[in-house]
Amino acid sequence: MLRIDNLCVRYGGIVAVRDVSLEVHASETVLLVGANGAGKSSLINAVIGMVPAAAGTIAFEGRSLDNVACAMRARAGIGYSPEGRRVFPSLSVRENVLAGAIGAGIADKRERYDWLCGAFPLLAERARQPAGQLSGGQQQIVALARAMSAFPKLLLLDEPFLGLAPVWIDRISDAVRQMQGRGTTILMTEQMARPALRLADRAYVMRGGEIRRSGSADEIRAAALADEYL
Ligand code: ATP
Questions:
Q1: Domain annotation covers residue 161
Q2: Residue 61 has pLDDT above 80, yes or no
Q3: How far is ligand 1, taken at its centre, from the CA of residue 109, in Å?
Q4: In angstroms, rounded to a whole number, what is the distance separating the alpha carbons of residues 74 and 137?
Q5: DSSP one-letter string for 147-189
Q6: Is residue 229 over pLDDT 60?
Q7: Which of 65, 184, 216, 217 could hold 179 in an S-S bridge, CB 3.0 to 4.6 Å?
Q8: Atom 16 of ligand 1 has which residue's CA nearest to it?
Q9: Which PANTHER family does UniProt cross-reference here (predicted)?
Q10: What is the rounded CA–CA span in Å between residue 156 and residue 147?
Q11: Domain-located, residue 85
């Protein structure tokens, strides 16, 4: 579904992503694991079109995303939940969630919204509350639901566990499983390998802008036991 070949991302003289190639197949959950500054967000931002690729190609469903604007990538079926949640604080929970569907040009939002409320009861309980008043974990649920509200084919989750207590990591993991249950293809980044590997089919380990290792979640878990990224 997603194929990245020899991608490079640069900020002036800084090389954030160096010659990275990876694939995400339909209905898989793939994890990009690595420490702060490894280049994970830069790679995700290149897929959504927020930063340009300095070199290499990104293809979605067999078509190159070169010269495809961010909004058109969303309409093509790429959903995105940013690092640090970034909900719209003064908009209600409901408005935040619907913003995702509107951004992707979805006309019939009702059925999708109802499904999301069933999957994540918090959305119905807090529908009218400004999202900025929620806890960090609750905001993360809203950010996931916003990304999910267009029912994207490919969902990009940038560090969904960042700054959350273990109880919220468990709840966010359950939310991700709900999305997997719908057959959603997921590419997620995390520094916290242990809980993220429980959700993943395969993983890539990123360091210094490069892929250092790849394999099944079990292989990466076994390899990581002796390393510092678990
Ligand atoms: P984090 O968990 O901190 O987000 P990351 O693995 O997502 O880490 P990136 O945010 O992609 O890594 O950063 C990769 C490198 O690019 C780092 O050296 C970072 O300082 C640099 N970088 C990221 N964004 C910018 C920017 N807008 N301008 C300049 N350098 C940047």
A1: yes
A2: yes
A3: 35
A4: 25
A5: HHTT--SEEEEE-TTTT--HHHHHHHHHHHHHHHHTT-EEEEE
A6: no
A7: 184
A8: 16
A9: HIGH-AFFINITY BRANCHED-CHAIN AMINO ACID TRANSPORT ATP-BINDING PROTEIN LIVF
A10: 8
A11: yes
- Residue 72 φ then ψ, to 5°: -70, -30
Indicate the SS3 state at residue 120.
Answer: coil
Q: Calculate the alpha carbon distances from 97 to 78, 174, 195, 217 in Å.
A: 16, 18, 25, 31
Rounded CA-CA distance 210/205 in Å is: 8
| Helix 110-119, helix 93-103: angle, nearest 10 | 130
Least confident of 71-75, 100-104, 129-133: 100-104
- 31: β partners: 188, 203
Q: What is the CATH number of the domain that holds 198?
A: 3.40.50.300
Residue owning tokens 């967000």: 41
What domain range is 14 assigned to? 2-224
- Crossing angle of the two packed helices 93-103 and 136-148, in degrees rounded to 10: 30
Total domains in the chain come to 1
Q: How far is CA 32 from the centre of its chain?
A: 10
Show the tokens assigned to 154. Answer: 């490919």
Question: What are 5's strand-pairing partners?
Answer: 57
Residue ranges around ligand 1 (CB below 6 Å): 11, 14, 16, 34, 36-42, 83, 159, 191
